[in-house]
Design a protein that fits this description.
The protein has about 375 residues and is of the alpha/beta class. It has 15 helices and ten strands.
Length: about 375
């Protein structure tokens, strides 16, 4: 039996995690639930259901509640929060010595060295499907035998479009992801491929592989979640349906698997799998992320914060779809990464705040 804290319980990751707990009452016990507050009715129902089985469950809304919950006595903290607000709970879980099942990629990306220096070996278990796939594939060889990591991307709803054909994209179209059901920010990030850019930075930080040995390939079917290429030419891939159930279950049970977490691929049915190169002209977000990751320091925090502001502006009708990445690039170009070897939480938060203000100014200037 594992005691689990779920941060971001009303989001896509959190609701699926509760499904897994519900289906495996002999393996998982929920001792803490938190959410951001955007869906209080759902949160109340979740707490009421969990409390019937675990009366002592901790619950709360907001960032401070998540920080507190992340320090509760438990076996694993699942951070399913979306956005930079997940950083402090991530640090709290690590400082408390908890195993961190990390779906909140932003906290690792913006925190970078700050997060890594606090994490003990094996303390962070990736829950992003791509990074979970890599972690599983890495069981096939030693770190010294790894030649490169290959992240797969669906290409989003606009795969194959040129830059010019993206000008009139609407928020409704951007939210029509071909494979996954996710929240507004992550789904929009998948459409711009900002999400894949963030995942490149995340892969570099999680697995200590240089950026020039991390590739992205478009795989529309999303049945191969990601791959590891070894020095002898062998490629090990993790294959499964395009859902998050296996990564979430594995994150909570790591290194063990949860039987029947997901339906396996039906190999009796014919299927075509495609692989295409990424169009960096129409979708420059990955190139920009490599630049931010290579600069290091607070540059990834700026990339992420500017994007969050731009996504809101796009959905509010104040920014065209291609403008999301354009503004990120402009803000990143204006950012001076602070010198010094040690990144502090204040550095990250200051860069985050600066980038949000800079992005808002840039959007307003472009409107006038």
């Amino acid at each position: 039996m594992r005691d689990v804290v779920i941060l971001g319980s009303t989001g896509s990751i959190g609701t699926q995690a509760l499904d897994i707990v519900r289906a495996n009452p002999d393996r998982f016990r929920v001792v803490g639930l938190t959410a951001g507050g955007s869906n209080p009715e759902l949160f109340e129902r979740q707490v009421a259901e969990v409390a019937t089985r675990y009366p002592e469950v901790f619950s709360g809304l907001g960032e401070e509640a998540s920080v507190e919950a992340a320090q509760l006595p438990c076996d694993v903290v699942l951070n399913g929060i979306t956005g930079a607000v997940g950083l402090r709970p991530t640090l709290a879980a690590l400082d408390a010595g908890r195993t961190l099942a990390l779906a909140n990629k932003e906290s690792l990306i913006i925190g970078g060295p700050l997060v890594k220096e606090r994490a003990q070996p094996g303390q962070i278990v990736p829950v992003d499907s791509e990074h979970s796939a890599i972690a599983q594939s890495l069981r096939g060889g030693s770190a010294e035998e790894v030649r490169r990591l290959v992240l797969t991307a669906s290409g989003g709803p606009f795969r194959g479009r040129t830059r010019a054909e993206l000008d009139g994209v609407t928020p409704e179209q951007a939210l029509a992801h071909p494979n996954f059901a996710m929240g507004r920010v992550i789904t929009t990030n998948s459409a711009t491929l900002v999400n894949k850019g963030l995942e490149v930075i995340e892969a570099h930080l999680l697995f200590d592989v240089p950026f020039d040995r991390i590739d992205v390939v478009v795989h529309p079917q999303q049945l191969i979640h990601s791959m590891v290429e070894f020095t002898d030419g062998a490629v090990v891939a993790q294959i499964g349906l395009p859902t998050m159930l296996v990564p979430i279950a594995l994150g909570m049970a790591w290194p063990d698997r949860v039987p029947d977490a997901e339906t396996p691929v039906d190999w009796t049915k014919a299927a075509d799998w495609r692989f295409e190169p990424l169009d960096d002209v129409a979708f420059p977000a990955v190139v920009l992320a490599r630049e931010a990751g290579s600069r290091g320091g607070t540059a990834p925090a700026v990339y992420n914060a500017a994007n969050e502001v731009c996504v809101d502006a796009f959905h509010e009708g104040r920014l065209p779809f291609p403008g999301i990445v354009d503004v990120i690039g402009a803000v990143l170009a204006d950012h001076d990464v602070p010198s010094g070897e040690h990144l502090t939480l204040d550095d990250v938060l200051a860069a985050d705040a600066w980038a949000r203000e800079a992005a808002a100014r840039t959007i307003t200037t472009n409107q006038t």
